[in-house]
Amino acid sequence: MAGAFLPLVNREHKVSITQQIFLGMRTAILSGTLEKGSRLSSWQDLSVQLGVSRGTVKRAYDLLKDHGFIVTKGRGGTWVAMALPVGPVETPPQVHAPRGLFYDFEEGPQYFQLGVPAQDQFPSKAWHGAWRRAIATEGARPQIYPDPRGLLSLRREVAGYLATARGYSCHPSQVFITSGFAGALGIVLGAMGFRGNRAFVEDPGFPRTRHALQQAGVETIAAPVDREGVRLPIGEEGARLAVITPGQQAPLGMSLSATRRAEILHWASEADAWIIEDDYAGELQLSGRALPALAADDRFGRVFHIGSFSKTLNPGLRLGFLVVPLALADMFGAFVGHLAPAGSVVAQQAVQNFMSGGHFYRHLRRMKALYARRKALLVENLCREIHPGVRCEYEGALSVRLFFPKSADDVAIAAEAQRAGLGVLPLSPWYQSHGPGKGLLLGIANVRDRTVRGKCETLSQVISSHPYA
Ligand SMILES: Cc1ncc(COP(=O)(O)O)c(C=O)c1O
């Protein structure tokens, strides 16, 4: 339905309003803004929306009809014609989707794509039930502004989940429902006024975090990652923030060691600095029990804890949560109230229903077992296939990592593999430092018995066809 399209009208203009409506809609049709075959507002509705007389709009619609741009089907409404009149076609401007996000927004996921859940094992019945109940509740709810921090019932549920699954006790007033990790990060950066400051980021680390900080005017300082996780170059002057993945380092997978956890918390309290804990994979730790969240050890009120439903439920939900130190809860409430209120109440209610019905926990338990099996399957097949000069790592994280010699062009290899339908990612863009590691990241969530062997063979052929020594 293209009914939402409103042509601009200017009463000061010398051109008549009928003509302005006609020209505005004609341009929108020719440029593709109004798609062929889409339905338009009735002329009665449009006249109300534009605050002009019905006759004015009707004359504009008649003109559009006479020129062959629209067709009317009596009570069936008014539509953009499927066959447009030949005429000077205005080329729509080229507007690109945001770059560097790794994903095709229209299709996928591809085999080995990272960051998406298993597509075949979602508990659809329970999920649909949760939505049906959410819609029924919504229908019975008064049409008023909801709490911008998110539904209290969901914030309570999240606080309960954090206490049991992540060993972190917090009060629901510290919890904010956000548009995923990205939305939560934006809220912290804005509310804390970090623009113009410097932040430690893991090297290698999640590129979207680095780009997000830079977009928000925060200078990033690379903090190297070793076997114990990230090591902050603490002597470095002036960092007021560190954004880290203590649970499972992204992309290398190790958990932050107890010594490093203590060091980082100590640094924050001494340097009047802050930590953003990106707990993107939550308790989806495949071997053993996940360590508690870093925020659980935070005695100084310095950690912002961020969780996301993107890996555990669906990235399309755009839902996550932010937990702020208690002392900052009011300030964050005011910030989100004005600048970043939580999104759709129905979606929040559905997630709450799903959680309170016990389905979320059951789903996580099943996914942990499934992902562990799929990872083992991939490792077994990959090691059989892969070039002997390539090192394969698979401890931790929901990925398998392949490391190449430094001379390899991992971006070109990944691009070729992507053309062959494999959603692998190159490793080097995850580094901020010069002379980055080279390799590929493979997601394990959608690996299947029947297909894994063939996919590994294809990947192996792509890698072997690239000389990199
Ligand atoms: C390191 C890391 N953080 C966060 C996220 C989730 O981001 P969002 O909640 O914005 O989807 C991902 C998903 O790929 C990730 O890999």
Task: Tag the structure with descriptive keywords.
8-stranded mixed beta sheet; 469 residues; 4-stranded antiparallel beta sheet; Aspartate Aminotransferase, domain 1; 3 domains; Aspartate Aminotransferase, domain 2; binds pyridoxal-5'-phosphate; alpha/beta; globular; Arc Repressor Mutant, subunit A
Tell me the layout of helices and strands.
Elements: H1 17-31, E1 39-40, H2 43-50, H3 54-66, E2 70-72, E3 78-80, H4 124-140, H5 152-165, E4 175-178, H6 180-192, E5 198-203, H7 207-215, E6 219-226, E7 229-230, E8 239-244, H8 258-270, E9 274-278, E10 303-308, E11 320-323, H9 329-339, H10 345-356, H11 359-385, E12 391-393, E13 399-404, H12 410-419, E14 425-426, E15 438-443, H13 449-464
Parallel strand pairs: 5-6, 5-8, 8-9, 9-10
Antiparallel strand pairs: 1-3, 2-3, 4-11, 6-7, 10-11, 12-13, 13-15, 14-15
Helix pairs in contact: 1-3, 2-3, 4-10, 6-7, 6-9, 11-13
Bound molecules: pyridoxal-5'-phosphate.
Largest sheet: 8 strands, mixed
Residue ranges: pLDDT <50 for 5 or more in a row? none
- Helix content range: 25-40%
- What number of structural domains do the residues give? 3
Radius of gyration over C-alpha positions, nearest whole angstrom = 26 Å
- Structural class of the secondary structure composition? alpha/beta
Number of strands: 15
Estimate the mean pLDDT confidence: 91
The first-to-last residue Cα distance is 56 Å
The CATH superfamily of the largest domain is Type I PLP-dependent aspartate aminotransferase-like (Major domain)
The small-molecule ligands in this entry are: pyridoxal-5'-phosphate
Order of helices and strands: HEHHEEHHEHEHEEEHEEEHHHEEHEEH
Helix count equals 13
Shape: globular
